[in-house]
Amino acid sequence: MQDIIQSLNRFESVTLKQLDSVKLQNRIDSKYILSKKELLEVLEGIRNDQFVLEIDQTRIFTYNNIYFDTEDFQFYKDHHNGCVNRVKVRSREYVESKLSFYEIKRKLFGTRTDKQRKIIPALYHEVPENDYNLIQYKRLQNKPIFKKLSNQFNRITLTNKTMTERITIDLNINFDNGIKHLELPDLVVIEVKQGKTDVFSTTIQVLKRLRIHESNFSKYAIGVSLLEDQLKHNNFKPILLKLNKINQYARC
C-alpha cells in the first residue's frame, strides 16, 4: 500500500469542485480487475495524463456500501441472468466527507449506466417506504427489499486533464452478509467512466498494453456469489476464476 501512496504523490491533484464537471451520471462504464502489483504499472503509465482527487491532503478515501434486495435476491438473479435494464439499490457513505447517499443504479442497453441519488442524513440500513418510489423497476413487483450485503473499500479517483473521463480505482475490498466476512486484499478494480466511448483513452491503451482486459464486474453480484452458497453463480465463473488467481479466495 505504501508503494501505491508514493506513486499517487507524483500525480498532480484536482479539487472536488473541479471534479464536479466530470460527474457522468449517465455514462459508459468499462471495468478491469487486476492485482496491486499491476496497479503500480498502470499508475506509472497514466501519471502524465491524469489528475488525482485530493481533499484535505487525502488521496485515498473510504467508502461504505449497503446493498438491498428482495428476500429471494431478485436483483442479483436479474444480473446473473443478464437481464437488460436491471437495477442495484444501495446506500453509500463517503467516510472522510461525512456524506451519505441513497442510490438507484440502472444498467441500460449495452454498457451504459444511469444513476439516481439523493442525500440522506446517515447510511440506510433499511429503505424507507417513501423511497421505494425511486426504484421504478417492474420486476420488483411491489416486493419489500432488505439489507443483503455490506461492502467497504478504499477508492482513488482520477480524471484526465481534458476533464472528459473519470477513473476510479477500488482496493482493499471486503464483503459481509451478517454471517460471513470476506476480504480480497490484493484485488484492484478499475472503472473507466466516459460520456461516450473513447478507445484511444490513455488509460484504456495502457491497460491493453499490460494485457489487462475488460471484465463485467459488479461488487454486489460478486459479493453475493461469494457469500451466498445457495444461489447460482455459473455465469460469474470467468470472473471468479480471475479473482481466484489474484486472491485465491473465490469459489468456482
Key features of this structure:
alpha+beta, Hypothetical Protein Pfu-838710-001, 10 strands, globular
What does this protein look like?
Helix content is 23%, strand content 37%. The chain is an alpha+beta fold. The chain has an eight-stranded antiparallel beta barrel, surrounded by five helices. α1 runs parallel beside α3 (36-46). The radius of gyration is 18 Å and the shape is globular.
Query: Structural class from helices and strands?
Result: alpha+beta
Overall 3D shape: globular
Oligomer: single chain
What is the distance, rounded to the nearest whole angstrom, between the alpha carbons of the first and last residues? 28 Å
Question: Poorly predicted ranges (pLDDT <50, ≥5 residues)?
Answer: none
